[in-house]
Amino acid sequence: MYSQRVLESHPAGCAGDNLLSHCSGIESMGRMQMELHTGIELAVALIKQDTLPALLDTATRQLENAFGLSKCWALELDLSGRTLHCGQLGDASEFDCGDFSHPFAHVLQTGKPRELTRAASYRLDHTGFQTLFEHSDRPRSLWLEPLTGADGRTLGVLALCGDHDDWQSIIGQPLYTGLKQLLVHQWISQLQTRDQVWQRRMLKRSLDHLHDAESVRQRCQQLSHTLVGNSEAMTNLRAQVVRAASSQLSVLIQGETGCGKDVVARGIHDLSERAQGPMVVVNCAAIPDTLLESELFGHTKGAFSGADQAKEGLLAQANGGTLFLDEIGDMPMALQSKLLRVLESRQFRPLGAREEQFSDFRLVAATHQPLQQGIDDGLFRRDLFYRLSQFPLRVIPLRERTDDLEVLSRHFIRLYVEREGSGPLGISSHALKRLAGYDFPGNVRELRNIIELACLQTAANGDIQPEALRLDDLLMDAGQAASAVADVATIPGIPVAEEIRDLKAAAQAFEAAIIRERLQQYRGNRAQAAESLGLPKRTLAHKCLKYQVTDV
Ligand SMILES: Nc1ncnc2c1ncn2[C@@H]1O[C@H](COP(=O)(O)OP(=O)(O)OP(=O)(O)O)[C@@H](O)[C@H]1O
Predict the structure, then answer these.
(1) In this structure, are 297 and 328 located in the same domain?
(2) Does one domain contain both 150 and 251?
(3) Residue with the nearest Cα to atom 24 of ligand 1?
(4) CATH number of the domain that residue 99 is part of
(5) Protein residue closest via CA to atom 30 of ligand 1
(6) Same domain, yes or no: 339 and 212
(7) What DSSP letter does each residue of 187-204 carry, written as one string?
(8) CA distances from 214 to 112, 145, 156, 269, 509 (A)
(9) Per the database record, which ranges form the Sigma-54 factor interaction domain (predicted)?
(10) Are residues 60 and 165 in the same domain?
(11) Ligand 1 mean position to 505 CA, how many Å?
């Protein structure tokens, strides 16, 4: 205890009055020096603390030792000013300042110190206070004092616990007031440091946020050169593509045919950290079921009849890059299970091989088919669907974002001029109006075809006019159509013109009948049938699925 330590250090045995007064002079000087030394030691220890909890801990231990207290607590008022916290009390460390069942609320409200006797303490029905009382060895008395900074800011409450009758003999001592002042000063400086740290952290967070937002904005801007469109839907889609590109999640792109799923997949690859790696595109609808597995997994020499060379699969080729599985809805069920296994481990075994191989690819898949329907019909694995659609993206049809028509049209005119060396300057507002009234079943691909055909029919340096837009009849004019109808009139399944009541259904029946007939003609060879009809293989495959034309 500090006072005892001071007394114990007095020089012993002074005799006679003079001597006595001399002795007492020396004694008081010694005591002053001792007090000063002790005070400086304590002050240095307080100043050294660099966190608020360490400061409060050191200060309360100093007060306990210096004044022989059974316990000293420093309760901190939180930022809201509603709760006092006592770090050393564990679970019972919070005191609601509006709850007058403990005495700290009263001290804070009045801003004045008060004494609390043991008997009064026993009567208080507050769990937190009783825990504090218990941890203080149930003292005879508590001295509760609010601590306030020079600016009037309330910091908290200091609670001194001991068996003292007269608290004034302690709180009146210069050492006590000095320590308390220093504690308050250091407390405020810790709060200021904490505020500054917090402000710096907030500033850094805002700057990081701004930086992220700026980098997303720049990437969206970059993407807008290939994934063109001003509509809100397209702006949102670009932001999603940028997000998807920065992750490693599997992406499933859904949307009608021709709406830009390939463009989206390419954007994801180009903006990802795999951009320098390969992008391997597999059209599941264009590769016959029997070949798809060996194309994907590869095979060893002699793995099956006709495999006279070992072949690296597309999965292996996609190592370090992106594997784009287009028309995933057309993947046969047996292969779906194998793909699921590959997606879980990135391990696969080429046909005929003994060893497994590993390929680090990122998967992007696309489909124009409603996969949910495929799942319900038992044609698509639900677990694969979830595995593919970790980051789902939907490209909405062009007819639902007519705001994009102008910018897309100008984009395709520019591409035409770049390719052909000359062409129209732009497109007239009347022509744009005409486009807006059309519903583009073939989406952006159809718009591109319409614009390119219109470019051909527009004088260089002129603007595309409505007459140059061949909507609906892009593939054949009336004369050609009539002769085509005459040619196919003998094909079974073609509706008789006079009996047609539903033009769309009739047109579909017409298409289906021609495809069926052409497939028969080429003995089921889809590539030849597609070529003879001027269609890409995949388009023919889509139409076969759509019209349920089975191979002959
Ligand atoms: N937003 C766009 N900006 C620029 N070009 C686009 C856009 N969307 C589509 N295109 C163009 O339209 C054509 C068809 O696009 P794409 O092949 O990406 O469609 P898709 O949805 O993948 O079609 P499918 O279902 O038949 O595979 C392409 O020439 C493509 O470049």
Answers:
(1) yes
(2) no
(3) 257
(4) 3.30.450.40
(5) 260
(6) no
(7) HHHHHHHHHHHHHHHHHH
(8) 54, 52, 43, 20, 52
(9) 227-456
(10) yes
(11) 26
Residue 212 phi/psi, 5° resolution?
A: -60, -45
For ligand 1, residues with CB inside 6 Å are 227-229, 255, 257-263, 326, 368, 408, 411, 444-445, 448
Residue 229: inside a domain: no
CATH number at residue 534: 1.10.10
pTM of the predicted model as reported, rounded to 2 decimal places? 0.58
Site to probe by mutation for ligand 1, drawn from 368, 395, 403, 444 as the one with most ligand atoms within 8 Å of Cβ, is: 444
Q: Which of 227, 263, 418, 447 maximizes ligand 1 atoms within 8 Å of its Cβ, making it the mutation to test the pocket? A: 263
Same-domain status, 190 and 136:
yes
Whether residue 414 sits in one domain with residue 384? no
Same-domain pairing of 62 and 132: yes
Nearest protein Cα to ligand 1, atom 12: 445
Which tokens sit at 431?
Answer: 């022509």
Q: How far is the CA of 223 from the centre of ligand 1 (A)?
A: 14
83 CA → ligand 1 middle, Å: 60
In a domain, 514, yes or no: yes
Q: Are 287 and 436 part of one and the same domain?
A: no
- CA 263 to centroid of ligand 1, rounded, Å: 6
Per-residue pLDDT tens digits for 203-262 = 888 788 778 888 889 999 999 999 999 999 999 999 999 999 999 999 999 999 899 999
Count: domains in the chain: 5
The closest-lying atom of ligand 1 relative to the alpha carbon of residue 228 is 3
Backbone angles phi, psi at 288, to 5 degrees: -55, 145
CA–centroid distance, residue 447 to ligand 1 (Å): 10
DSSP secondary structure string for all residues of 324-357: EEETGGGS-HHHHHHHHHHHHHSEE--BT-SS-E
| Most informative mutation of 253, 398, 445, 452 for ligand 1 (most atoms within 8 A of CB) | 445
Quick one: which of 432, 341, 439 has its CA closest to 398?
Answer: 439
Walk along the chain (552 residues) in steps of 10 and give the mean pLDDT of each run.
41 51 67 74 87 92 92 90 84 84 91 93 90 91 92 90 89 91 92 82 79 88 96 96 93 94 97 95 86 91 85 94 94 92 90 91 94 90 93 96 96 94 94 93 92 91 92 50 52 69 77 86 79 79 79 59
Q: How far apart are CA 148 and CA 157, in angstroms?
A: 9
